[in-house]
Structures are given as C-alpha cells and as structure tokens.
Amino acid sequence: MSVKIIKFFSGVFTIGCVFLVISLCVMMVYLSSVVKDLPNYEVLEKYEPPVMTRIHAADGSLMGEFASKRRLYLPIQSVPDQIKAAYISAEDKNFYAHFGLDLEGFARALIKNIRNIRSGRRLEGASTITQQVAKNFLLTSDATLQRKIKEAILSLRIEKAYSKNHILELYLNEIYLGRGAYGIAAAALTYFNKSVNELTLEQIAYLAALPKGPGNYDPLKNRDRAVARRNWVIDRMVENGYISKEHGRTVKNKPLGVILRSDESHIFASSYFTEEVRRQLIAHYGANALYQEGLSVRTTLHPHLQAIAQSALHNGLVQFDQNHGWRGAYEHIDNILGDWGESLSRVKVFLDIPAWKIAVVLKNTKNGVKIGLKPRNELSGTVSKERETGFITIQDMKWALHMVDEQGRHSTATNPAQVLQVGDVILVEAKKNKKNSYHLRQIPKVQGAMVIMDPVTGRVLAMIGGFSYLQSEFNRATQAYRQPGSAFKPFVYAAALDNGYTPASVVLDGPLEIDQGSRGIWQPRNYSNTFAGPATLRNGIEYSRNLMTVRLANDLGMPIVAEYAERFGIYDKMQPMLSMSLGAGETTVLRLVTAYAVIANGGRSIQSSMIDRIQNRYGHTIYRHDQRRCAGCNVEQWNNQPEPELIDERDQVLDPMTAYQITSMMEGVVQRGTARRLRDLNRTIAGKTGTTNDFKDAWFIGFTPDMVVGVFVGYDIPKSLGTDGTGSALAAPIFGEFMRHAMKGKPNVDFKMPESMMKIAIDRRTGMHAEASKDNIIIEAFKPGTGPADIYQIIGSTESFREGIQVPLVSPQVSRAIESGAGGLY
C-alpha cells in the first residue's frame, strides 16, 4: 500500500515538475519576446522634453508663453523638499527604499482591491514612481498584462541605471497636472501664479493630489473632491513623518487658494510686440524651436513706455473718431424686461481695453441714459448674479449727437433718445473720481501705429500696431506699407546737404509744371496753394514746401536721392522719379523710424531689433543683438591699462555734420514750422510731419538725442481722413501726449554739434551773411570750408525736368508775381 502511494505521489511530482519546466520555458520564451521588443531606456539619460518658450520684456516682466505642452523644466536641485515629500507620500511612500517594484505596496493594494471588488469600488493601482516614469516615457497607457510586465522590467533596469533623484526629476517634470500644465513648475504658475519656491504647504498638497486624475480634482468643477484629495495627501505626509499632526490639522482647514493664471499676468498692451517677436523666432529658428525647445527670450520692450504709447495712440484715435460722429450701437437686445444681465452676458465683444466695459441701455431721460453693465463671469464659468448699473449724462455723450449712417450721411440729434434706444448694447468707460458715471465710447474705424526706438542701438523700446489686437492682429507698424508723404523730405534735404548744398542754399518756391510724356503734365502743389518765392533749404523743411523739394531733387538728381533712400533702408529699391521725392513710395513705420534714428545718432547705420538676447533651455546664449567688440573687457586682471572701449564697426551712412544740419533744420519744424504746436513741450525736439495726397496718411516722426518716436494714422483701406487729417493736426498731438509723459522728470538734452563746424548768422530769407544784431536772422551751422553765399543765387530758375526737353519752371506772369512779393508762407 505504501509503495503504491509513493509511486502515485512520485508520478504527481514528476508531472508537476514537467509542467513547471514547460511553464518556465513558455514564460522564458514569452519574456524573451517581451524583452526583445522593449524600448531603449537609455534615452532617459538625455531626456529633453518639449519645454515652453517664455518671452520677457527688458525689465524681466513676462510678455508671453508659447508651447505645444506648457512645461518648465526644473532640475531636482531646484525642487523644494516639501514638494518631493508631498509627491512621494501621495504616489510612492517607499520610493527611496524599493528597487523599482514595491512588493509591500503591491500586497497592500492587492488586499484593498479584493475589498474594493466586493464593495463595487474603483480598483487601486500599485505603480511606483519608477513604474510611472517607465510608462509615461517609454510605453503606452494600455491596460494590458503585457504592458505591466514591460513596465516592471523597465523599472528594474531604470533603477539599476539611474539615481533616485534623476528618476524623481523625470517624474516631476513629465507628469500631467491638468489645465494644460505639464510638470510641477508649470502647474504652480497655472493654479497659483507662483513659482515652486513660493508655494505654501496646502498648495503643494493640492498639486500632489492631481496625478491620479486632474479632471477629477479640478478646483472649479470639483472643488469638494479637490479639497478631500488634498487633505488625504496631507494625512499621508503626517503619516510618513514629513509634517506634524498639528501642522497637518491647521493646513487642512485652509481653502485651496487657487488663483488661475490668465493673460492678465502678461504686460498690458504688449500683444503686437509679442506677436512680432513670435514671427521673428519662427523665421530664424523654426516652429519646433519656438514651441518645444524652451527658449528664454529677452526683448527690448520697455513696459512703461509701451503703456504710455498705447494710451497716447488710443486717445488720439478715439478723439479723431468721435469728431466724425456716432455710427450706432454695437448690438441690440430685444427684450430687457426680465434679467437683462443674462442676455447681455451672451453678447460677444472682442475687447482688450480694460477700461472699456460692455453695457446695455435700460432707460432714456432728457439728461442722459441709464445703463446696465455686463455681469462678470465667476471662476466656475457661471455668470455672476450681481447687477451693476450706471448713468451717462448728455454731456458725456455730447459728441454722439452728431450721427453718421452707413452711407456716410450726417445728421444731428437733440436728445439722448434719438441716439440710443432701450436695449442697445454699447461700450462705456468709467469717469475718473465719479462713481457709476460713464462716458459713451465706440471702437474707431481709423487705425494707427507707433514705434519708439533707441537711436544709438536700434532697440525698439515700444511698439503699438493698432487700436486693438483682439479686433485686428494686423500690425500696422511692421506689416502695413504706406506712403510717408512729406515725412520723406528730410532724406532729400540730407542728400543735398551731403553733396555740396548748405542750409542757406536758396531754392525757388513757385508754380511748376512737369511734362511726363505719355502720363501727361504733373503739377505738384504746396499744401497751402501759396508760394514763398526764393527761400532757404531750412525754410523748405520747416514749412514742408513741396515745390521747393521737387526743384531741389531735380537739381540734385533723383538717382542720388534714390541711393540715399536705399542707404537709409526706407526702400529696398526706389524708382528715381521726381514724385518719389514727395514720399510717393511705400514703407513701414518701423523702417521710417529706423531711418530717422540714423540721423539722430549722427549718421551711423543701425539694425532695428526687438530682441536683446535668446538663451536655450540650458541657459546658453544663442543670439545677442549687441555685436560690438570689446577687446579688453575680459582681461583676468587690471595692470593700470586704459579702460576698455566698445568698438563700433557700423557703417557711417551719413556725414555726422550733415546729420547735425538736417537735425537743426528739423528742430525748426517744431519751433516755427508745421509742428509748432509741440513747442509747449519745452524740449529739444527735431521732427517732421507728413501728409499724403487726399489726406490718406498722417505722420509725425520726432526725436531727441536718445529717443525716436514715429506715429502713423490712417484707414486700413486707404481713404481720406478729411481736411483735419494732417500730420500736424492728427499725428503730432499723439506724439506730444506721449512725450509729455515719457519725458516727465527727465532733464532736457540738446543735440551735440560736431567739432569743426561753425555757426554763422544769416538772413532767414536770402540765406546770405547777416549781422547777428539785425532782424530776421538765424544762426546756421556750416561745415568747414562752407558758408553763406557771397552772391544771391536761386536754384530752379530754369531746369530740364524731362530728358532732352527744357521746360520753363514758371511762366513770365508768375515770375513777375513772385518778384512783386505775391504768395505767403504756410
């Protein structure tokens, strides 16, 4: 009997062994096939995840962020210990003790899951942080046995190859934490608008609660669950000894404190500047570098000047638009008898002007209109139940009594009810220091642009590309090509001064007819339709004389004028036609401001730049705008050698003496000429107005020794601005408002005259030498070897305006009229 039993058990054992061997062989074959297909874990050594590019202003303020995944990579050395403790407590409490697989945790999870199955609860995972790294970096999220086996094998290999800190660094930077944020650094900014070092314990605990399911613990949609999960993390930190029970109890009683980050954290009014920088980065480095390589871009933008420029242009465009009448309500709500707030909240207006608000007309009175303001949206996405009302007095909407319809027909209202109807959706702006009182506003149709530049370096300090970026992303400072009109004239005069003429050279300002062959007769005119007769170059610039400019350009030669325009970068290729001397070509505001900056800096060529420096994700500088060499700046020690000097190797495109002469002449534009309204600034300013045919474009470019400011105003589809749409009346006041605030508290600085130049008193009219004590004289700067003419000469008595054909400049009758003193200055 015993023998039979022994044989039986012996057979069972033999079968069992055979089965075990077969199972092991099958398992080895299976594992061999699994291992064969495993991804290479060594890629984790040089892991470079997609990282967010951040664009900063010159003072470090944030302007914008660009990323395919919003991530900021944070080395483990920069991660606060409390963050490490929170994530280890929540995700893998034995992280520093296990070898990649936590057997204790696996057993604990197995027991819990048996209970969960019985109670119908969700199953819990047992993945360590190392396993999550293996899954997130190297595998898919498929819930299969094969994936779990691969995950386990890779975890063992990763633990063998890398330190715990490296594994934790990978995890904390890769994990998705909701609302588009990858990694703890991006999540800290997204949920709390803080860096990781500024987070409080309750905030850290909330971030550590998110890996299990960011959507399940969203602070707005699932606040109670978010608080519960955060408190669970705090309990685990207490349990693991990272914080005391008392501290944990105190922290659990605190609110989430979530402050979701928005674009409001970016510099106000910098959208056009940021977008232009984005385009430049893509052009030079490609979209992949912008959205994935984590560039750190330091721009040239000066936030204070940017805000001033935005306000000045905004006010100028609004004032011009209001002068031309009210065009009607933005929209209309038919029924406001119920909750007008709900109806108004559904009106979509793309507006990036914080001071302006959307409102609906609730009631008309003879003294004004009662309005209801659009309710704010709560963080949860619902509309606030609070309702705010206000009032617009008839005085604060007086401009709107002048109305214009879609056909351009004008009419005049006598009371508010003729302007606004109950239910009209309008834009309003709160009055300063007067609660619940508002101005009526409308979005201007006219557009404009401003560029502010440092003339020495070419750094763009501020740039406004239009009235509203949300209304139109088209950048009128860099993308719009418009005729500069008279703003081009200084370059004609600079070319003449560089080629033998002086500020005292006399040119005839009189009627002119030019035979253009098949194109007919061209008769240029002065703005005022008057003639000054013979006048100096200074007079021609100060009063923007068209006829003088054409005669000067003809006498000088248009090929020379074209060469100078191209040298200054105004045009790539300019046709040498006389009409081009009056600014008939097309250029951008940025190009024209850069050209004026060359004059302002003494004639050195400059390259405009909106970027100072670019660093890659490792902090290495890959671009720097300032290319000046400094041979002695990096010496190891000082041995009484002279101070190092920056070597300026830029081309001298204009004689410094010529630059000073044309600058002095443009100072006269502000003191006596077409921009004399700016005299009350009491500043040393040079500049030039510009107005094109039919008043389609209005310009003013002005500068001091350390700042160039360009202003352009015009419709996107060119049409007349009206007779008040001149550079003097429209663009110059915008420049003036900007300078009044930008220069506040700063000392006045005069333009420096180059050595060897001489100042000589001349007769303002004849350009000839005059006694300094005489009336009607001006002190003019002359280059060495030049001076006032000894003989009265007039450029432009007769000239050839068409090859091979002599054309009289003026008729005999006009000549006699000029000699008798007819005409006048504008």
Strand content: 15-25%
Q: What is the radius of gyration?
A: 37 Å
**Structural class, from helix and strand content?**
alpha+beta
What share of the residues lie within helices? 25-40%
By DSSP, the count of extended strands is 28
Give descriptors for this structure.
826 residues, alpha+beta, 6-stranded antiparallel β-sheet, 22 helices, 28 strands, elongated, disordered C terminus
Element layout with pairings:
Blueprint (H helix, E strand, L loop, with lengths): L1 H35 L16 E4 L5 E5 L3 E2 L9 H11 L11 H17 L9 H10 L6 H17 L2 H11 L6 E2 L1 H9 L8 H9 L13 H17 L5 H8 L18 H15 L1 H6 L3 E4 L3 H21 L7 E2 L7 H6 L10 E10 L2 E6 L15 E5 L8 E3 L5 E3 L11 E7 L7 E4 L5 E7 L6 E5 L24 H9 L8 E4 L4 E2 L5 E2 L10 E4 H6 L3 H11 L1 H10 L21 H12 L10 E5 L5 E4 L31 H16 L14 E6 L6 E7 L2 E8 L12 H16 L15 E6 L13 E6 L15 E5 L2 E4 L3 H8 L7
Parallel strand pairs: 1-5, 3-4
Antiparallel strand pairs: 1-2, 5-20, 6-12, 7-8, 7-12, 8-9, 10-11, 12-13, 14-15, 14-24, 16-19, 17-18, 20-21, 22-23, 23-24, 25-26, 27-28
A few lines on this structure:
The chain has 826 residues and is α+β, with helices and mostly antiparallel strands. The protein is built from 22 helices and 28 strands. α15 (489-497) packs across α17 (546-556).
